[in-house]
């Protein structure tokens, strides 16, 4: 027999305890056997080890390799600035590694948030006396004392219960308070049994005694905590793309370095010169500024999202949002407004159900008993301001009182003098009220339990006998409301002659009417659902609420439109195999209802197995594992627990589903923007590479030094590249399907445009300016020139300046691969404008200041040099505009 089915005496016997509680000796014994009542932290290894791992990602290894080669180059040929290159690259690695470690550290605060849901002290009975004990000292067999406002510290079985209502939302996801009693239950499931209190839930009302049967990680709360810690989302799409990009660039750099090292050796280049050339070639091929630029672009994207009520906690989640193919969303508070409201009403002996919005204003005069029962039958506590606070009572009761206030039917100041509390068996609440010498009884509850107690029905201001025809009408109305997903309550009252006779309180009641309540959808949600469908994103409701309620809300917001959508309850899901669940997920319209924490995570894992990029919303402790397992976990900022927020990648500041769709739009823009600045960065890599190829193949002076390459990669181009990363989403983005998982960030089209077109034009311009500068100084081919020669420094300065000037034009060309630069407003992206200004200022500092000349081996340029390079910038603009025109023509 399960604990839930046992009598109180049998429960005591199974746990070897009694109403007097355990002895101190027995507590020590059980504490040693079962351990303290706390959630153990899963070891992740020492922080030093984990910090070290952050410095050795694949891209970081490439940078380490490049810096190592630069140091070797400095050792073999001092004075070429290779040491500066090495130190600056190492700084990039360290900054990026520290940032990644900080992100990981923040994610591990989940456990601390979990423990905040449990009290620090608990009241227990031991050896017949009540004691206050620290939370960790609680053991199975302890007798707990609980009252309204307490958090339940362990899984326990009720032995005494007086008006107990429990908020289980953090564990089960159920939005309505649940009533509990000490009687044996037919249920064996701990989540459904009405005599079980689970750790992490909260007492909404009443007083109770309970015997503890599970503590620490053995509780359902502890199991969720373990799942939350152990679940992992895997690599984000962005990390996978960066890894792919890193491998591609590394392969190209090493292959070109080895190839041209071999060519240089074959044509007789001295071995050390050839080696230095190979080092420079590899350094030129690696975009050292990519990681910091990417990180800053994501940070700025998070700031834009914050303005749209989305707080990003994990940077790669920004881009992952844009890849989303499925959103698994909770119902309460996300799709709905997280407040109950009266939607349908049946007044007394009326034959038709009335929409609450069209309720006649004279209803309160015509049916005073209905509004009297709605106003008085509750356990709400008045706030300091004199209103009603949701923190002190049931949202359903708040909705009834608000309905009364909206109708202007506030009753006389009755005083509650007695109560028959709600419990799982009675399914109703009855209260007794007095006003001077007048007494009344008011009741509310499930129609099937309250209607049999009624002998009369309200007919306006009077009443008459309740006939079978009336009962049939009432039952039909109840079924109609239930089919709409409403929670249906019956209201009744009667004048009381003798308030002392409790046995007669619920006899011969007058039926006042039915109320259908619903948590209304947010008005923005239907449009957000439509945008998701247009964008090819599937939305699946995954909720702890009743299937009928979930279906009704889904239909109202446009999530389902068919007559028979697929609705899978948690009980059914529990018996599905992995293959069956995978097939069930193919249903075009799908809702999961009454699901538990592990089931929600199972749904996420099944969708990931089907190659979906999954976003999941959640607000409770029960959502933590699924939030971490998903590619993108989305927590509620208003109603969400600290656990959910710490487990999530992003937080909705307004708890609104529509904000998710806005964030997806921003995420899609991020992917496109990364491509834009990647094209921009890789373009100048070609211009940096060609000088080395000319050096080894044609024995010409090196047109660009390694430190000058770094000046471009991490100096002049930084802010303009960042500006490209902050471009606003294009209007057509949300009319496109999610991109394929096989679509690469660095694809053939991008490589051709950056390397084979823009890069070659820029490289040709830079080399022509370099040779022009040497030629006018009297240099001829085959002549040896020293690196300290002012004429050589002037030529390299001209080459460097040409690349920067070309990049100033190129940043406007890279804003779109198709649209003309003249069709895009320059003022629409101020960061690009500031980047161009900064790029010009840095160029001036490099060319015309003593410090710039010393650090970068440059000299001031004359006016003629600038005039000579400007036509090349114009040529880049004209040629790219012609390419775009041709691309648009072919696309039509």
**Beta-strand residue fraction:** 15-25%
CATH architecture of the largest domain: Up-down Bundle
Count of discrete structural domains: 4
What structural category arises from helix and sheet content?
alpha/beta
N- to C-terminal distance: 73 Å
Shape: elongated
CATH fold-level assignment of the largest domain: Calcium-transporting ATPase, transmembrane domain
* Overall mean pLDDT: 82
Number of helices: 32
Can you summarize the main beta sheet?
Answer: 9 strands, mixed
* Beta strand count: 24
As residue ranges, the low-confidence spans are 383-392
| CATH evolutionary superfamily of the largest domain | Calcium-transporting ATPase, transmembrane domain
Radius of gyration from the CA trace?
A: 36 Å
Topology, pairings included?
Blueprint lengths: L7 H7 L9 H11 L12 H8 L3 H19 L5 H26 L2 H6 L5 E6 L2 E6 L8 E5 L7 E13 L1 H4 L5 E3 L15 E2 L4 E13 L5 H11 L6 H30 L4 H15 L4 H18 L2 E3 L3 H7 L3 E4 L11 E7 L6 E2 L7 H4 L1 H9 L18 H12 L8 E6 L7 E8 L2 E8 L1 H4 L3 E6 L2 E4 L2 H16 L3 E10 L12 E10 L6 H10 L3 E5 L4 H10 L9 E4 H4 L4 H7 L5 E4 L3 H13 L4 E5 L5 H6 L2 E5 L5 H6 L2 E3 L4 H41 L8 H11 L1 H7 L23 H29 L13 H24 L16 H19 L1 H7 L6 H29 L1
Parallel strand pairs: 9-19, 9-22, 15-18, 19-21, 20-21, 22-23, 23-24
Antiparallel strand pairs: 1-2, 1-3, 3-7, 4-5, 4-6, 4-7, 8-24, 10-11, 10-18, 12-13, 13-14, 14-17, 15-16, 17-18
Helix pairs in contact: 3-5, 4-5, 4-10, 9-10, 9-25, 10-25, 11-25, 11-27, 12-25, 14-15, 18-25, 25-27, 25-28, 25-29, 27-30, 28-29, 28-32, 29-30, 29-32, 30-31
